[in-house]
Amino acid sequence: MRKTIIIAAALLAFCMPSGAKSKTLEAFIGKVSSSLVSFEYSFSMRSPKSKAKMTGEGVVKVQEDAFVLEGNGLEVWCDGSVRWTVDRMSEEALVENVDDSAESYATNPALMITSVDAAFEELSFGSATFQGKAVDVSVLSPLHKGRYSMDIAELRLFFKSGTSVLVGAEVKLNDGSVSEFTVKDLTFSERLETKESFHFDEKTLDDSYVVTDLR
């Protein structure tokens, strides 16, 4: 499950990169910080230790330190205080408190989003190709290596040329794995007044579920 959380973390991490110096990145950060952000995604992940390729898709809704991610049979709900990871197929759920400890930072995309000012720096900004199309690319590196960066070695954000419209990302992990994300239907909506919609309703789980509560 930890590898899945890292993938989710990588996905949400590119919602709010920091250390922005390019105007494109600054404009994107401004939109994200003032909005409820929603998007669809698909990804593929290659590992140097295996010829198999992991693929998946899903939808994300995120605002500040709260988010809901649904994809590949998993649901991850976080209201900023408590995170639920639910596997409907295996009927398992994991419940954890969200805090600022090093271990939580390593596996928690919500904490990454709220702590980005201390997490990434932009190394370069220029032109590139993403899925056969000309794009602008921002290359970012974690300020702190290892568990403090959720195992991310490098992050590349791809924008539609001449705009701050995010179309994809490439995430390189410390173990050599590479994940490529395609972003669709990215929308910025008015922020919600409360985080109630990010709170998981545990009443939706019946007695057949195995719930591991680490709170």
Please provide a brief summary of the model.
The protein is 16% helix and 48% strand. It has 215 residues and is an alpha+beta fold.
Structure description:
It is a single chain. Mean pLDDT is 80; it is low at 102-116. By secondary structure, the chain is of the alpha+beta class. The protein has helices at 2-13, 23-33, 102-107, 109-114; strands at 36-47, 50-63, 66-71, 74-78, 82-87, 92-97, 120-130, 133-142, 152-160, 166-173, 178-189, 210-213. Strands 7-8-9-10-11-1-2-3-4-5-6-12 form a twelve-stranded mixed sheet, with helices on one face. The longest helix is centred in the N-terminal third of the chain and has 12 residues, at 2-13. It contains four helices and twelve strands.
Shape: globular
Give the uncertain stretches in residue-range form: 102-116
Report the biggest beta sheet as strand number plus sense, adding barrel if it closes: 12 strands, mixed
**Sequence of strands across the biggest β-sheet:** 7-8-9-10-11-1-2-3-4-5-6-12
Chain oligomer state: single chain
Task: Summarize the helix and strand pattern as letters.
Answer: HHEEEEEEHHEEEEEE
Distance between the termini: 17 Å
Please estimate the helix content: 10-25%
Mean pLDDT: 80
> Helical region count?
4
Short descriptors:
215 residues, alpha+beta, 4 helices, 12 strands, single chain, globular
